[in-house]
Amino acid sequence: MKRHFRVWRGDESGGEIQDFDVEVNDGEVVLDIIHRLQATQTPDLACRWNCKAGKCGSCSMEINGKPRLGCMTRMSTFEENETVTITPLRTFPVIRDLVTDVSFNYEKARETPAFAPPPGVAPGDYRMQQVDVDRSQEFRKCIECFLCQNTCHVVRDHEENKKAFSGPRYFIRAAELDMHPLDDRTDRKEYAQASQGLGYCNITKCCTEVCPEHIKITDNAIIPMKERVVDRRYDPLVWLGRKIFRRDQLQNGSATNMAPSSSEGVTGVAAGLSGAGTRPPQAPAVGADGKLEVAELLSPHAGGPSPFGNDQEFPLPNITYNHPEQDKS
């Protein structure tokens, strides 16, 4: 049967929503519809995709106003008479049609300090307990679809924040390394606060809501990182120690000791430069049943309400994208 679709067409100079009637078959996903549009009506429609299995993160788009993967959004989730509106990610500048410039994320990735192995341990000799692996394994499921980056209102609604804010994708990277028992850097959380904009996040859980890998970004990464920063900054004993001792006498240096990476690949301690000391592997406690008892991983609290409530109507009427002009210098 034929269904009605509205697809945004345009480029960095502007564009508009166009209407299409497309044949839909049982079991198809939104990406199938885009391919059928390219084959039958609009051969110049631009759209990124690769694996069509929800593992590459390429086909990120907004479907009826919600950031989703086109290959993982089944047509059966919509009513038969419902119009489906497909638009590009709004946080990033449009290149053409559904393709956006997500280079902002790769710039933030290069700024994130790399894993720093402990000195004196050769590659291949690293040893970790399974509980340590499980603790941060969740964060390694990220497919870098950047849906969390797109829906985060800190950058979505405030272009001026992009220089100081890395976003949820790189907060989970910082949390992963902070929880890593072999990472030689001890100031991950302070660096996240000082240089990645951790304090900008007000934990509305929008990023968790849209994650296709169901990573609990807010509960398991951002909130624990914020709590640890608060402990270090506002604990009265730590405050008193900072007043009594000189900076070079403190056990842990400030976040300014760790400069962001300025090049791709291995940097800092991983490149052979001096480190700040070794943190030996230490497994968290396990319960009597032999299972890991970590509050961040086994949080009993339910997630917050969806930011995509019933206050929106679809199809979106008369949408025109006016993205900020890209710096072409």
From TrEMBL:
<dbReference type="Pfam" id="PF13085">
    <property type="entry name" value="Fer2_3"/>
</dbReference>
<dbReference type="GO" id="GO:0051539">
    <property type="term" value="F:4 iron, 4 sulfur cluster binding"/>
</dbReference>
<keyword id="KW-0560">Oxidoreductase</keyword>
<feature type="domain" description="2Fe-2S ferredoxin-type">
    <location>
        <begin position="3"/>
        <end position="90"/>
    </location>
</feature>
<dbReference type="GO" id="GO:0005886">
    <property type="term" value="C:plasma membrane"/>
</dbReference>
<comment type="pathway">
    <text>Carbohydrate metabolism; tricarboxylic acid cycle.</text>
</comment>
<dbReference type="InterPro" id="IPR004489">
    <property type="entry name" value="Succ_DH/fum_Rdtase_Fe-S"/>
</dbReference>
<dbReference type="InterPro" id="IPR025192">
    <property type="entry name" value="Succ_DH/fum_Rdtase_N"/>
</dbReference>
<dbReference type="GO" id="GO:0016491">
    <property type="term" value="F:oxidoreductase activity"/>
</dbReference>
<comment type="similarity">
    <text>Belongs to the succinate dehydrogenase/fumarate reductase iron-sulfur protein family.</text>
</comment>
<dbReference type="GO" id="GO:0006099">
    <property type="term" value="P:tricarboxylic acid cycle"/>
</dbReference>
<dbReference type="GO" id="GO:0046872">
    <property type="term" value="F:metal ion binding"/>
</dbReference>
<keyword id="KW-0408">Iron</keyword>
<keyword id="KW-0001">2Fe-2S</keyword>
<dbReference type="InterPro" id="IPR001041">
    <property type="entry name" value="2Fe-2S_ferredoxin-type"/>
</dbReference>
<dbReference type="GO" id="GO:0051537">
    <property type="term" value="F:2 iron, 2 sulfur cluster binding"/>
</dbReference>
<keyword id="KW-0004">4Fe-4S</keyword>
<dbReference type="InterPro" id="IPR012675">
    <property type="entry name" value="Beta-grasp_dom_sf"/>
</dbReference>
<dbReference type="GO" id="GO:0009055">
    <property type="term" value="F:electron transfer activity"/>
</dbReference>
<dbReference type="InterPro" id="IPR009051">
    <property type="entry name" value="Helical_ferredxn"/>
</dbReference>
<dbReference type="InterPro" id="IPR050573">
    <property type="entry name" value="SDH/FRD_Iron-Sulfur"/>
</dbReference>
<keyword id="KW-0479">Metal-binding</keyword>
<protein>
    <submittedName>
        <fullName>Succinate dehydrogenase / fumarate reductase iron-sulfur subunit</fullName>
    </submittedName>
</protein>
<dbReference type="GO" id="GO:0022904">
    <property type="term" value="P:respiratory electron transport chain"/>
</dbReference>
<dbReference type="InterPro" id="IPR006058">
    <property type="entry name" value="2Fe2S_fd_BS"/>
</dbReference>
<feature type="region of interest" description="Disordered">
    <location>
        <begin position="274"/>
        <end position="329"/>
    </location>
</feature>
<dbReference type="InterPro" id="IPR017896">
    <property type="entry name" value="4Fe4S_Fe-S-bd"/>
</dbReference>
<dbReference type="Pfam" id="PF13183">
    <property type="entry name" value="Fer4_8"/>
</dbReference>
<dbReference type="InterPro" id="IPR036010">
    <property type="entry name" value="2Fe-2S_ferredoxin-like_sf"/>
</dbReference>
<keyword id="KW-0411">Iron-sulfur</keyword>
